[in-house]
């Protein structure tokens, strides 16, 4: 059962375990993905990690599909499929079980308590995600300005994030960053 | 990225609360409904899911949707994926959950696999490199904006302990690069304890 022996099995174990700690969703698990995929196993370079993050944000569907791209880089289609299912299915089944258990206890106080307790942790995790990807993406001053501009625009307006990503792509194509 | 923000409690309040459909959706309907909202979901599936489930199909009231999402939000894993499984299973049991799950995850996963192939072949072409570099910068900016949006209510309440915990997790994961499991196994009990004490004091 050595994860080096079969890369697909390694992906299943890695992402299956990670999903159970992905408090606050996929974007909160980005630092752990980076730690494992770039620092530990060298599946991707830092630059490739920033790329797959961008591709996952740009494509439709849940943001968790960054694991599909990491899985593909490790073991082709089988890896992509295995990583995606391992990251998504266990917690979905967990949610199904918990929602069944909660049915009888309407108005219980502890779900709200847990939610309140997890909010600051998931914000901290997502902040760390932003920091880690920016260290790969924001290598030049114009790139930093583009990131800050995109953040300000997304924070202050209700503009569809897709337009901001496409604008970033156009500026990139024009050679600004 | 809005899939990570809590749902707006009042956004569906114009929908009559009693207008929930009586006919439960079948497996094929579940699969395609979730595939459709997922493929429409550029920049976050949640708003599309809310619109489809509450407004178009009227499978749930706005309150039921918020309640279900809240449950999926405090559990680990991709929230909207959790929601699809819980939602599908409510109507058609375990197979319903799987139908909604594979509807949400399957089609975009195939699409992203296609992008993975393209990236593997053309990822080093200079034009594409420049475009991806620009998109990466913008994508980081979007994430930063989400973080600040989620932080505002926390700052507004002027409670120090949650802010300290937030900064501690950020430092441990983002700067010290400690493993996620280790950090959370320490931080979650502390945060639960602190939240419990704060709520107890507030109600006393």
Overall form of chain B: globular
User: What is the C-alpha radius of gyration of chain B, as a whole number of Å?
Assistant: 20 Å
Largest sheet of chain A: none
The largest inter-chain interface, given as chain pair and residues per side, is: A-B, 109 and 97 residues
Order of helices and strands of chain A: HHHHHHH
Tally of DSSP β-strands of chain B = 0
Q: Percent range for helical residues of chain A?
A: over 70%
> How much of the polypeptide of chain B forms β-strand, as a percent range?
under 5%
Task: Please report the distance between the alpha carbons of the first and last residues of chain B.
Answer: 38 Å
Portion in helices of chain B:
over 70%
In terms of quaternary structure, what is this?
heterodimer
**Mean pLDDT figure of chain A:** 90
Biggest β-sheet description of chain B: none
Rg of chain A is 18 Å
Task: Summarize the helices and strands and which ones pair or pack.
The complex is a heterodimer of chains A (177) and B (204).
Chain A: H1 7-19, H2 30-40, H3 46-58, H4 66-102, H5 110-137, H6 141-156, H7 161-173
Helix pairs in contact in A: 1-4, 3-5, 6-7
Chain B: H1 27-40, H2 46-56, H3 62-74, H4 79-122, H5 126-156, H6 160-175, H7 180-203
Helix pairs in contact in B: 1-4, 3-4, 6-7
Kindly list the characteristics that best describe this protein.
heterodimer; A: mainly alpha; 74% helix; 0% strand; B: 204 residues; mainly alpha; 3 domains; 75% helix
